[in-house]
Design brief:
- The protein folds into three domains: 43 residues, no CATH class; 215 residues, Collagenase (Catalytic Domain) (3-Layer(aba) Sandwich), CATH 3.40.390.10; 76 residues, PGBD-like superfamily/PGBD (Muramoyl-pentapeptide Carboxypeptidase, domain 1, Orthogonal Bundle).
- 28% of the residues lie in helices and 9% in strands.
- Strand 3, helix 5 and strand 4 form a beta-alpha-beta unit.
- The strands form three sheets. A five-stranded mixed sheet has the order 4-3-5-7-6, covered by helices on one side. The chain has a two-stranded antiparallel sheet with strand order 1-2.
- With 381 residues, the protein is an alpha/beta fold.
- It contains eight helices and nine strands.
- It binds zinc ion (ZN) (2 copies).
- The site of one zinc ion (ZN) has 5 residues, from loops.
């Protein structure tokens, strides 16, 4: 070897290769739990935080900004019609708003006061799914089931034990012959295997209790279910709203679109409930919920159900409740191997792992380092 200083080149190669790989790894679009700074105290500021100012508002009041709350209720189906194009919602606490609040309170198991009491406002500002609770004017949540919900607190139910699961109007489902559904990720997101694994775990929750199976495919446009992270207006008339507010939405069968708000602080692994960031949202929890929509379930008034419309930040809820299972088995039947319990048998992700959303695994890093080393060696010798 003619080179007088081979050790120097080896050193340069290794330093350069590790520098390059670290540059790539640090380009995280979504933060890792362990890298977050402690958040300020108090409730997280979200898209609907200003609604807290309406505390105590009731019928007849006129309060600056109430029109935004009406838009909120209209968006989730509680006010049936948008105002004419020539005018906006008024700031008056009118009959339509009072009626919307009462229906909302019924659906969310709150005291039906028709007023913006603190308990109601606490529920309203929680982050939630973008799918409406009332579709085409019909709620299949609790407010739409009053005639059937007689078994609670009543030893002689007039009808039968109540389920609160709901279905989309017309009860759409994937066709009988389609037991395997394919899913794909929007190529532009370039998701890591760790992230894809979160979605696989979420799909597994549903296949555990039904005959359905799910298989990832690379063919995005040919897949039955198409998953992507998007920001703001992304072309389907349901724009995302930044931090918190609506977190994600999905369409009923057999549409297959599943969109997540790229602006959220998605937690892929690690204990979301111990996160210092008040806006941390657990990815698997939201994925399990949205897959319920993709398969045909609407929202449920059962708070323990994954199909309940809201989820607090820093909360993990991934185990199907009895209500969810009844709903999905109503549509698809049961998995012959299902033993009647998901609470312990559902696959749990390793919560001690705090891998970032976009990361390179050890072997990829090693391979890349070796490649860089060989490349530099080739140039010098
Ligand atoms: Zn939903
Ligand atoms: Zn969308």
């Amino acid at each position: 070897m003619n080179n007088p200083e081979p050790y120097l080149f080896i050193l340069i190669a290794f330093v350069l290769s590790f520098f390059l790989t670290n540059v790539v790894v640090s380009a995280r679009l979504f933060p890792n739990v362990s890298t977050w700074l402690p958040a300020a105290a108090g409730p997280p500021a979200g898209a609907w935080d200003a609604f807290r100012n309406f505390s105590g508002c009731h019928h007849g009041d006129n309060f600056n900004g109430l029109s935004n709350l009406k838009s909120y209720f209209q968006r989730f189906g509680y006010i049936p019609h948008a105002p004419p194009l020539t005018s906006n919602f008024s700031d008056e606490f009118d009959d339509a708003l009072e009626s919307a609040i009462k229906t909302y309170q019924k659906n969310f198991n709150l005291n039906i006061t028709g007023e913006l009491d603190d308990e109601t406002l606490r529920q309203i500002v929680l982050p939630r799914c973008g799918v409406a609770d009332i579709i085409n004017g019909t709620t299949s949540m609790k407010a739409g089931k009053d005639n059937q919900t007689t078994s609670f607190g009543n030893s002689k139910p007039r009808f039968h034990t109540v389920s609160h699961f709901s279905l989309f109007p017309g009860q759409p489902r994937w066709p009988e012959g389609m037991q395997e559904l394919t899913y794909a990720f929007f190529p532009g997101n370039e998701l890591s295997d760790t992230v894809k694994g979160v979605f696989a775990a979420a799909f597994a929750r549903w296949s555990e209790v039904t005959p359905l199976t799910f298989r990832e495919t690379a063919a995005y446009f040919g897949a039955d279910i198409r998953i992507g992270f998007f920001s703001g207006d992304h072309g389907d008339g349901e724009p995302f709203d930044g931090i918190l507010g609506t977190l994600a939405h999905a369409f009923s069968p057999t549409n297959g679109r599943f969109h997540l708000d790229a602006a959220e602080d998605w937690v892929v692994s690690g204990d979301v409930e111990k996160s210092a960031l008040s806006t941390a949202v657990d990815l698997e929890s939201v994925a399990v919920h949205e897959i319920g929509h993709l398969l045909g379930l609407g929202h449920s008034s059962v708070e323990e159900a994954v199909m309940f419309p809201t989820i607090s930040s820093r909360r993990k809820k991934v185990v199907l409740a009895e209500d969810d299972i009844q709903g999905i088995q109503f549509l698809y039947g049961t998995n012959p191997n299902y033993n009647g319990s998901t609470a312990t048998s559902a696959p749990e992700r390793d919560s001690s792992n705090t891998a970032p959303l976009f990361s390179w695994d050890f072997f990829t890093l090693l391979t890349f380092n070796i490649f860089i080393f060989c490349f530099i060696r080739f140039i010098y010798w």
